[in-house]
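Batch 3, record 17
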Amino acid sequence: MNLSYLKKFYSIIFLTGVVMIAVTLLGLTFNLTEEKILEQEHSQFLAHMAKIFPDMTHFEYENDIYILYNEEGLEGYAFVASAAGYSGNIKIMVGLEDKETVKGIVIMSHTETPGIGTRILDPPFISQFEGMEIDLIKSNVDTLTGATVSSKAVIDAVSKVAREKVALLS
Amino acid sequence: MTKWLKELTKGVVVSNPIFVMALGLCPSLAVTNSLDNAVGMGAAVIFVLLCSNILVSILRTWVAGIVRIPTFIVIIATFVTMVSLVFQAYVHTLYESLGIYLPLIVVNCIILGRAEAFASKNNIGMAIADALGMGFGFLLAISMIATIREILGSGSLILFSNTLFSLPVLSDQPISLFLLPAGAFLVIGLLLAFFRRTGLIKNE
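Prediction for the assembled complex:
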């Protein structure tokens, strides 16, 4: 076996060693942070839900729908809809008062253009959904001038997913 | 010791990674729309740069030349993934607003550039000085860009949810161009021109 042959093997062994150490380190960090990450995501989810339903005390989860209760009884329903926005996915939490009316919506995550598409986060647009009947969303909620794609994506997704979920509920 | 100090300070002004070497422009264009993002990105880069420089410097005598770059990338990617897990666990809002640019630190040319050009040829002490200097130079540069963009683009300056100050006229009618990528190019270009003209930073 000549020396250059051994040299080739050396680089393979070296890189394998480095990768193995890297994997161990990553596994360790993942184990240490996993619980905390889930906790964070959960608490953020609950915070979004509390924005629409401030009185909510507990909820049940069934078929991707959250059935929410307050101290007196049924409070409403919530679910997550996703829309293809202007530059990426928009994740929306939709809250229903009953099987016909929307209680409110919250944009959970988005990548819209700052200052233009991000206006879908603000009251003039988002508050239009409050108390709106599901069948009237498409005809009665106005899109935003200059942010037609972003706002229309939200309107279409809320209307479509709400109908699907109501059909599942009844 | 004086050599160590020289390596430490060179990254901040004399060979500032952004304003002089024009490295790492991708994150400095993308995440400088608010000061919070810039500081978060700067902190992540300092950590990754420090860890990778130290490790590369330790391994420099054993690393096989033929797999040099893959080794550096594996080391950098490991630290970046660790940072992104920690950010996800403890500073979730920052993690979400940095988005794709946090994992993209892996291909940030400042870090690979320092590993290849400096840490793989110098001892650990020098590598630490270089990493700290370059890291703080990067942090300083992107914070500067972010401050200008945030003030012009949203009319106020917010750091860790404390409003440092706000300008009444601009916050009613912000120049949202400065929050868009085009605004980042304008700000970087004008800052570069300003530094060159005043002689604060010289061409190498």
